[in-house]
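Annual report, structural modelling task.

Input specification for the guanosine-5'-triphosphate complex:
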Amino acid sequence: MKQTHIIVGTAGHVDHGKTRLTMALTGIDTDRLPEEKRRGLTIVPGFTYVDLQSGRRLGLIDVPGHEQFIKNMLSGVAGIDMALLVVAADEGIMPQTIEHLNILSLLGITKGVVAITKSDLVEEEWLELIVEDVSKLLAESGLRGAPIIAVSAQTGFQVEELKGLLDQQAAEVQERSSLGLCRIPVDRVFNKSGFGIVITGTLWSGSIRRGQLLELLPGKMEYSVRGIQVHGQQVDEALAGQRTALNLKGAKTEKIKPGCWLATPKLLQETNRVDVKLTLLKDAKSIPRYMKVRVFHGMSEVLGRVRLLDREVLEAGENCLCQLELYNSLTPIRGDRMILRSSSSLETIAGAVVLDVHPPKYKSSNPQTMKTLQTKAQWDSKQNFLLGLENAGTLLSIKEMAEIVQLSLEETKQKVETLLQAKQLKAVEVAGAVQYYSVASDAKWQNDIMFTLQNYHQSHPLQKGMPCPELRQGRLKKLALKQLNALLGTYAQARLLKILPEGLIAKQDFAISLTPTQHLELTAIVSAYEKNPFAPPDWEELLGSLNISLTKSQEYLGWLFDNKKLETIGKVLFAYETFRRAEQILRNKYPREFTIAQARDLWGTSRKYAQVLLDAMDEAGLTKRNKESRIFIAREVLL
Ligand SMILES: Nc1nc2c(ncn2[C@@H]2O[C@H](COP(=O)(O)OP(=O)(O)OP(=O)(O)O)[C@@H](O)[C@H]2O)c(=O)[nH]1
Ligand SMILES: [Mg+2]
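The model returned the following structure:
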């Protein structure tokens, strides 16, 4: 089965048959809690998947219909891409049919299927009436035009046809982008013996690889991902829109709870105030200038207050730009959707699209306030522009950007200017010309680079840094070396990493530190080479005699060269500076001419090593052969 990155969520009134239909589609009973079994209803969202004829595998979330569990319903549908609205044929439209449909509309869900289930319980004519009612209701909602189908989970009537419709709708869903920053709201946490902490959630954006560092909010702790499963299968990478289980290294249950977020480090911040575009439902009561509400975002619910800025009252069915004050913090990002319920009547009343997660507290009398909010509301078009650039995955010139976003050069320049000012775009000079990249891409690259460097330092603790070209792995392959160098320059300036004179890259805080054993062993090696500089020991034999494992060979050699303790002459290892000393000793004794035997005796070595040193001198242009002997080439005196 092809894993898709699309999640369908059920919706509908209590007892209307959502869980039974889920079972008919997937063969899995998602009501697992003893209390769910006892009461015969769903309490927490259940997760499974459905395989479709096209080869698509859709994630399926079955939510509770009971009004009492609306919070769980909201957390279930928070990450879905399309809906399966279930209406029981015998009861027809009921309060939560309407409330759930409203919630789906406010969350911006426009694709889905409506199943009129339990059709085995009713007569044909009755069924027709219900279908008519439902299509009227749909026409007013975000799901207008969605297909409606009569089914029965009991007899299996039209369940295959329902799958076909889900398949068609899924084909029209815009899959979430796996590029960019990742975040995942935690919906379950458990301690699996032998594994440690495992969390589950729907990956809202980006991708997660094994070994990646994720930041937990609240608290800002970082954990690395030890293992990933998608729909019960071990994978190396989870992609946006997939139901994901993550095994986190070193995590403690008391820190991670449902409602927490895991995300690319530094992406998320808690906030107590957001600017929003608020939409009041048509059948809600109008709301006054200040109104206490329950705010739902992701898996979280907090109390808060709507603060209207440009009017005294917001009437039913209207929308406006305003501010939400949150009594406890949430962790949204721009563009996220929130659901608002009245704190007194406990009804869903409105939805909000987040425009700014760190706005100031506005003075209501300030005429600039609404202008500022309107600018923020333009965000969508800006965001599309940025998304286009991010998908390119590299740094771009204005001309390249114009091609990607299909704007004229002039329009592109203007957009770039605004985005630079809004600090959403960055610029850097690459080989003399300015190139641009989004702040989100920057964070992504920075994350990859720091992650690779961290790994490199761990596996090469005696190496000063990583050769720059080796950093071009994974997503960074899309960058040309000179672009990567330019980026590294900016990170070095931000003191995240350092670029060493040899062109090696190291984390800013990295320094080689030898363990006591390494120190002892390396000192022993160096002194063995220095003891007999002109007749050096054989490397492998020396390691053997010092009881040093050959597996350390490469690592130690690297350190010895980097730290100017050894050098190679010809193909032989010598203590550092041996070549210069050999030349000096020779010149002092035989300023002009000497034989190989004389050199050998003077250095107190064998013919083999004398030959190596002398060949190197010839090659360096210091000496030349003269029949049986060698002479020093006179140095040109220029001054
Ligand atoms: N005859 C008949 N009964 C059904 C059908 N689908 C569900 N039922 C029955 O209706 C009752 C409720 O079904 P569930 O699937 O638990 O309903 P639900 O929508 O998941 O309920 P909540 O999760 O509590 O909102 C159960 O007793 C089911 O056996 C159907 O197609 N035909
Ligand atoms: Mg159920």
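Residues 25 and 50 are 6 Å apart (CA to CA).
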